[in-house]
Amino acid sequence: MTKALNLPNSITIVRLCLAVVFFALLSQYSQRDPEPWKLDWAAGLFIFAALTDSLDGYLARKLGQVTVLGRLLDPLVDKVLVCGAFILYCGPAFVGRDGVNVTGVQAWMVVLIVGRELLVTGLRGINESMGHSFPASVHGKIKMWVQSITIAVIPLLIAHNNTWASGDWANLLQTSCVWFAVIATVLSAVQYVIQSRFVLTETPSA
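^ that's the sequence the OP posted. Answer follows.
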């Protein structure tokens, strides 16, 4: 167990702890009685957590410390962080007095995002159980970057919509980020299904 808790895995665990604080800040926010500092801190924590995602993987390969625990935790924490953020953005905390959700994130978008993660996790399990590699694709990496940018941009724009983010450009930027995240999510899911098409049509051995 001590060997599994190496530096890369410790960084992943720290990212999970940051995710908990990030979720707590978003959960305590209310658009009807806004406290912008909570969104500023939430955005800062998410950006820091996202940066550690690349660091732990790099260190694991560089130091030769790739472990089963790390292969399990790293993608799990990423999925928890991303899916949790979009779920909270769709929730009542961001509904204003006019009944409109200011994030622009809709329930069906969250269903697509979470469904994509479940689909890819299932495809990875099927591929690896049949002895096929299932590496992260370029589409998957682009999806992660687009989602991460969106998650960071939304609270910053909402927190400062009465100051520097008060123009139409801010609304356009926020809407564009949300839709780009949805499109990137769908495209990456389609790409992974195509990548697994031969495995999905195989007949399992008795």
